[in-house]
UniProtKB/TrEMBL annotation:
GO terms for molecular function: ATP binding; ATP hydrolysis activity. It comes from the Bacteria. Keywords: ATP-binding, Nucleotide-binding, Transport. Residues 9-236 form the ABC transporter domain. The keyword Ubl conjugation does not apply. This is Putative ABC transporter ATP-binding protein. Belongs to the ABC transporter superfamily.
Length: 302
């Protein structure tokens, strides 16, 4: 089944308060068809609240959610594959019948539901468990069933709340593969995660949220370059302050190795010469901050 969405997911200006707590303020982003969007933020930042509003589990105080160019409604929501953070399976129901039931609830015929259940349980490595109650499975395998439940009706949009938490490395690989594959089919994929190296690897764009607001949004590489270039220099005999005043050096951290924040016009050879003038240089590496460092900067700045 192919996606019918002509435009992706648009989240515009969501506000949500719980009593005195502003859980979301003007939350705005979009996820294009075929795009993988990573939603990252500290505990309590507002990721699950945003996802619940997209799914209609919670109502926003202000703002709107569109999918395929129209305001999202109960029909379009039926086409969303959702993996809720609190998970949502029937523990006392067997894996296979449960998946068939959920697929039928999302509009598949009996034979389609059986066929898609067979496909996804096989693909996710739980085919031998279809006759077991969900509650009898390990937490990681329950999570695979939860992913199967989100995928079994060939959704037009995927919203996955911390899909990687608690998975073993093999299951992480399968989950990653599935996310990339669904996006390649044109499905917009929104997922939240605290595993930033996975987010960096899988996502076309990321949104970093803190205290209910979007604080940084863009392609990982763009955000990394905007985070500034740095030079890490291992010059053990260099005294503190050796790079102060060199053109293009914005700031310096003189610890065991020297880390210089530099601008785009810096002359790395001039900096290297200055380092060599202090004694031997064992390392001279240009770096951009990774997503984990960016995340720390964004979150500690609020
Ligand atoms: N039903 C609710 N009633 C009251 N407060 C709530 C409710 N749901 C969420 N909150 C609060 O709203 C804030 C945002 O929570 P949310 O679960 O969206 O964060 P999150 O980014 O998903 O965090 P985590 O990474 O820990 O899952 C938190 O302070 C949370 O305590």
């Amino acid at each position: 089944m192919t996606s019918t969405a002509s435009a992706g997911l648009e989240v515009a200006g969501l506000d949500k308060t719980f009593g005195d707590l502003a859980a979301l303020t003007d939350m705005t982003f979009d996820v294009a068809p075929g795009e993988v969007f990573g939603f990252v933020g500290s505990n309590g930042a507002g990721k699950s609240t945003t996802m619940r509003i997209i799914l209609g589990v919670l109502a926003a105080d202000r703002g709107e959610v569109r999918f395929g160019g129209s305001l999202i409604n109960s029909d379009t929501r039926r086409r969303i594959g959702y993996m809720p953070e609190e998970r949502g399976l029937y523990p006392k129901m067997k894996v296979g019948p449960q998946l068939v039931y959920l697929a039928r609830l999302h509009g598949l015929s009996g034979s389609e539901a059986a066929e898609r259940t067979a496909y996804w349980t096989d693909r996710l490595g739980i085919a031998s468990r279809v006759d077991d109650d969900v509650a009898a499975l390990s937490l990681g395998n329950q999570q695979r069933v939860q992913l199967a439940a989100a995928l079994v009706f060939d959704p037009d949009l995927l919203v996955l709340d911390e899909p990687f938490s608690g998975l073993d490395p093999v299951a992480v690989d399968v989950m990653s593969e599935v996310i990339v594959e669904k996006a390649a089919d044109g499905v917009p994929v929104l997922f939240s995660s605290h595993q930033l190296e996975l987010v960096q690897r899988l996502c076309d764009r990321v949104g970093i949220i803190a205290k209910g607001r979007m604080r940084a949004l863009g392609a990982v590489d763009e955000l990394r370059s905007a985070g500034g270039l740095r030079l890490r220099i291992d010059a053990p005999r260099a005294p503190a302050g050796w790079a102060d005043g060199i053109a293009g050096v914005l700031s310096a951290d003189y610890a065991d190795t020297t880390v210089l924040r530099v601008d785009g016009a810096h002359d790395d050879q001039a900096i290297l010469s200055a380092a060599l003038a202090t004694g031997p240089v064992h390392g001279f590496v240009s770096e951009t901050p990774d997503l984990t460092e960016l995340f720390r900067e964004v979150v500690t700045a609020v």
